[in-house]
Amino acid sequence: MSIIGVAHIVFGLLALSAGGAVLFRRKGTPSHRRLGWVYVLSMVGLLSSSFLIYRLFGRFGPFHILSVIAFISLAAGLLPAWTRRPQRTWVQRHYRSMSYSYAGLVAATAAEVAVRLPGARFALSTFLASVVVIIIATVIIQVRQRRTISPFIDANRRPDN
């Protein structure tokens, strides 16, 4: 395995760990911010390294397009938290974009595992693994949204803010 492949795996494992910790811990704390930055930086490393991997198609391919989408999702989650804009909806935008960024990471990981199962067909296994993860993640993200962001929405509505 090349150094790029090793770096890709290390960044991926770090992103899975940090992102999972962020999702399941209390929000808005100093540790949330620190782990969030670990997630963002490891995702930048993971996605950047993906553009150096061409073994599958020999050229820019569909997984590179997904990496571009993942970069956009990551930026869409980072910018509202960084700027606190738009003022009324930044929390929702941050929550949804970062949650879907992590869901995409888990879907890509599931697809990678699925293609390595004995007898797996590449296109079918990557598609099914990804779709199943995204459907489950969408349900979880929707169910948890109100409970997760309501303390921040309520805090923004107080007259002393």
Main features:
79% helix; mainly alpha; 5 helices; 161 residues
Describe this structure in words.
By secondary structure, the chain is mainly alpha-helical. The chain has one domain (3-157). The chain is 79% helix and 0% strand. The chain has helices spanning 3-24, 30-50, 62-83, 90-115, 122-157. The longest helix has 36 residues, at 122-157. The protein is globular and about 50 Å long. The termini are far apart.
Question: What is the subunit organization of this protein?
Answer: single chain
Number of domains: 1
Instruction: Evaluate the radius of gyration.
Output: 17 Å
Task: Give the helix proportion (percent range).
Answer: over 70%
Fraction in beta strands: under 5%
Order of helices and strands: HHHHH
Compute the separation of the termini in Å: 53 Å
Shape: globular
Tell me the number of helical segments per DSSP (H or I, 4 or more residues long): 5
Based on helices, strands and strand pairing, what is the structural class? mainly alpha
| Poorly predicted spans | none
Count of β-strands: 0
On the 0 to 100 scale, the average pLDDT is: 93
Largest sheet: none
Question: What is this structure, in a nutshell?
Answer:
By secondary structure, the chain is mainly α. 79% of the residues lie in helices and 0% in strands. It is built from 5 helices and no strands.
